Amino acid sequence: MHTNKNTVAVIGGGSWATANIKMLTDNATPKEIYWWMRSATQAEHIERFRHNPNYLSSVEVSIPAQHISTDLKHIISQAEFIVLNVPAAFLKEALADITPEDLAGKKVVSAIKGIVPDENLIIGEFLNQRYNIPFSNLLVLSGPCHAEEVALEKLSYLTIASPDTELAACFAGMINNRYIKTIVSDDIYGTEYGAVLKNVYAIASGICHGVGYGDNFQSVLISNAIRELERFVEAVHPIDRDIKESAYLGDLLVTAYSQFSRNRTFGNMIGKGYTVKSAQLEMNMVAEGYYAVNCLHQVNKNYKVFMPICEAVYAILYQKRPPALEMKHLAEQLS
Ligand SMILES: NC(=O)C1=CN([C@@H]2O[C@H](COP(=O)(O)OP(=O)(O)OC[C@H]3O[C@@H](n4cnc5c(N)ncnc54)[C@H](OP(=O)(O)O)[C@@H]3O)[C@@H](O)[C@H]2O)C=CC1
Ligand SMILES: O=C(CO)COP(=O)(O)O
């Protein structure tokens, strides 16, 4: 064990943060749980009524009211494990007042499946470069798991990745419970990039559905997607990994097929002719893949990996290419 004092802070007020609070609470290891969110109205509602008014509102929140706050420095100061749960596009803004000193010695867990815009860095790299957090103190929480199914206590498997697998196992012991099983990995690059890419493939899957392709084509799309994902993570961080594991293939499958997927829902609307703005307004939630595909397009300029699916999604979302035409062009490149 790395620590005797089990203190965890969850940073973010959305669906996944709420699900994280629930799984931490339902875990048997004694611990203190803290929760930061940006909205004072939301925090006050949770303190008073014990439910998040905006996301997963069926979940009962049983942490003490004084552990919920909009004061980020204070919440970070209370905990040894800091679980980041703000969508990547807004992370820099959320951490604007936080200094490397505030995070010194903390174990920082990224539960985010996105890339920091402009920096074009996955979260672990960003935290290491901006906040001097050593990789040995960084963890990634990933795997095929929708917040909505956590609320329903459906059996789910999460992967916790860190170069320090003992630390990953320690955090796993704080989050697993009767419906959450945990897998430990040392592949933070592959786990992070895999989660980022699968969001883009879920958008592609939704677009295809939206323009009228059926299940037969979707299976070919996803079979090509896992090969594209493997090519990319191999180029960025070549290690011996099995791409069929839950953190890679599993996460791709759940996102590409699930009714709960925000990225697939967003893609479906794009396929049906919504503009990006109107699709975003229609959803109360954030589709990370929209931001990520722009970053991936930039990052891949260094690696030049053959990524026809990512390029098709980029062309539709950022170059305003007609979805039906672009998907027809993509279909010709799949095998
Ligand atoms: N939902 C899920 O099942 C899973 C999500 N994740 C990951 O968790 C991370 C958080 O996503 P999730 O909880 O689903 O988010 P949601 O889509 O449920 O909620 C959106 C969150 O983003 C915040 N937000 C929206 N606009 C802004 C803005 N302009 N500035 C700052 N914050 C903003 C919202 O804050 P506010 O309410 O105050 O507007 C809210 O906390 C993502 O990286 C996602 O990929 C990972 C695994 C599963
Ligand atoms: O990452 C997730 C599930 O593993 C959530 O993203 P989606 O909602 O797009 O599926």
TrEMBL record:
Keyword Hydrolase: no
Residue numbers annotated as active site: 198 (proton acceptor)
Domain Glycerol-3-phosphate dehydrogenase NAD-dependent C-terminal stretches: 187-324
UniProt xrefs under InterPro entries: 6-PGluconate_DH-like_C_sf (IPR008927), 6PGD_dom2 (IPR013328), G3P_DH_NAD-dep (IPR006168), G3P_DH_NAD-dep_C (IPR006109), G3P_DH_NAD-dep_N (IPR011128), NAD(P)-bd_dom_sf (IPR036291)
GO MF assignments: glycerol-3-phosphate dehydrogenase (NADP+) activity; NAD binding
Keyword terms of this UniProt record: Lipid biosynthesis, Lipid metabolism, NAD, Oxidoreductase, Phospholipid biosynthesis, Phospholipid metabolism
A Gene Ontology term for the protein's cellular component: cytosol
Designated name of the protein: Glycerol-3-phosphate dehydrogenase
Species of the source: Mucilaginibacter yixingensis
